[in-house]
Amino acid sequence: MSVRPWLPSPLPLPSLLLPLVTLLVASAALTRAISISHHSHGHRGPSAAAVLSSSTQSTRALERRAAFLSALRQLPALVTKDRPGTTVLEIPEPPVLPHEKEYMDAWVQSGFGGPDVIERREFLMPSPEPHQVLVKVKAAALNPVDIGRRTGFFKGFMNESFPFIPGYDFSGTVEGVGKDVSRWRTGMEVYGYPHEIGVRPQRYGTLGEYLVIDQSFIAAKPKSISHEEAASLPTAIMTSLQAFEMLHIKPGDAVLFTGGAGGVGTQAVQLLKHYCGAGYVATTGSGFKTQLLEELGASVVVDFLKQNFTDVLKDLDSAIDATGEWWECLQCVKEGGHVVTIRGGPGRPANVPFFTVQARGSDLEKVHDLYEKGIVRPVVDSVFPFDSLPLAFSRLETGRVTGKVIVRGPSL
Ligand SMILES: NC(=O)c1ccc[n+]([C@@H]2O[C@H](COP(=O)([O-])OP(=O)(O)OC[C@H]3O[C@@H](n4cnc5c(N)ncnc54)[C@H](OP(=O)(O)O)[C@@H]3O)[C@@H](O)[C@H]2O)c1
Ligand SMILES: *[C@@H]1O[C@H](CO)[C@@H](O)[C@H](O)[C@H]1NC(C)=O
Ligand SMILES: *[C@@H]1O[C@H](CO)[C@@H](O)[C@H](O)[C@H]1NC(C)=O
């Protein structure tokens, strides 16, 4: 049997009708898609609200358009030759891949002050440098440092240049890689911390649709946890492991972490036990949080509303201060014991070093299996949709969170 060259296989005509109907419907959607995307590119600036909804739609429209065009290419005969005279469709400009978009949806900070210095608007798409990976953000987490950056509390030692996208933690999918990146490929699920060090933040933080990040600052997301859970981890894990290293914690050690119920503490307490093999893990918390901290593996939880922990804890090997109580920590360690503070504060002696966390994907890899197997678990305080960032900030600003405050990516 001879088959006409432009038909891939001899399909019966009825089976071609359904795709045709689909194409016609898609065609109507396409027309809308194009007008929406023009609209969103023409209105940057003051009318942020209008831009927002259309920009989300234009992403979906672009995806629809790409799907539509690929369907169209599989049926060339249907449109052009099999039914002469029916010029139903016109092929428009080629599809725009997500990472070729010019602008994306983001929360953007352009000054110091209250919640309104961070506005949702379109921001230039980042493109990866040779050593960088382009990631689509599925979830991001807030940290106390985001509050300090917003109010200007840290302006003395952070070299900010406005505007920038805030946010330190994310989980998402790889959408593209720079030419020197071989380890990561499009579609991989990764999580990480994009700023080389916390006090020298890059312009593209985690509260946007996409970010670019050095290939060594990310790790494969444990498959058994969600993006919301994974986003809760990078700062907490890296800060914990880097503090453990500074203190030279050994298996069997007795260690204190002050403020165990916070974003860092809920991970540090578990990691002290299951990663370092500490023999005794002490922490501080109040109310219902004391029970949670026991469940997370603390040997003792001092309720700071009822007792001064300096009265209870003695002769410890090391202490990590996350509450500004480094002086009290010094009272609890044995002679030759070590204290480090992640909170800082004036008047510290030389034997209480302060450090700022450094981005290290390798830290995340070291604990991958603990999370994958559920031996250590993420603790999420609350999850907010992307458009509720101001509410998420208010929640963190109470100072009473248990674990991490999460913000979903704009496309979810
Ligand atoms: N140096 C670095 O690189 C680095 C990295 C990460 C974090 N940090 C700093 O470390 C600190 C902790 O961060 P985080 O993300 O864990 O904060 P967080 O999530 O905001 O911590 C809130 C928790 O801390 C508890 N808390 C507050 N004061 C306490 C106290 N005196 N005793 C016991 N618990 C107390 C609160 O419990 P209650 O509701 O019971 O008060 C709440 O559960 C912050 O100052 C942050 O800036 C520094
Ligand atoms: C601060 O940032 C600007 C612009 O990015 C740069 O030119 C300047 O050297 C930086 N200053 C410090 C102290 O890092
Ligand atoms: C904790 O210590 C302070 C200062 O030394 C003291 O005033 C307070 O009564 C103590 N609280 C408890 C519950 O022991």
Automatic annotation (TrEMBL):
PANTHER family: 2-METHYLENE-FURAN-3-ONE REDUCTASE-LIKE, NADPH-DEPENDENT ALKENAL/ONE OXIDOREDUCTASE, CHLOROPLASTIC. Residues 1-33 form the signal peptide. SUPFAM superfamilies: GroES-like (SSF50129), NAD(P)-binding Rossmann-fold domains (SSF51735). This is Enoyl reductase (ER) domain-containing protein. Keywords: NAD, Oxidoreductase, Signal. GO terms for molecular function: oxidoreductase activity, acting on the CH-CH group of donors, NAD or NADP as acceptor; zinc ion binding. Pfam families: ADH_N (PF08240), ADH_zinc_N_2 (PF13602).
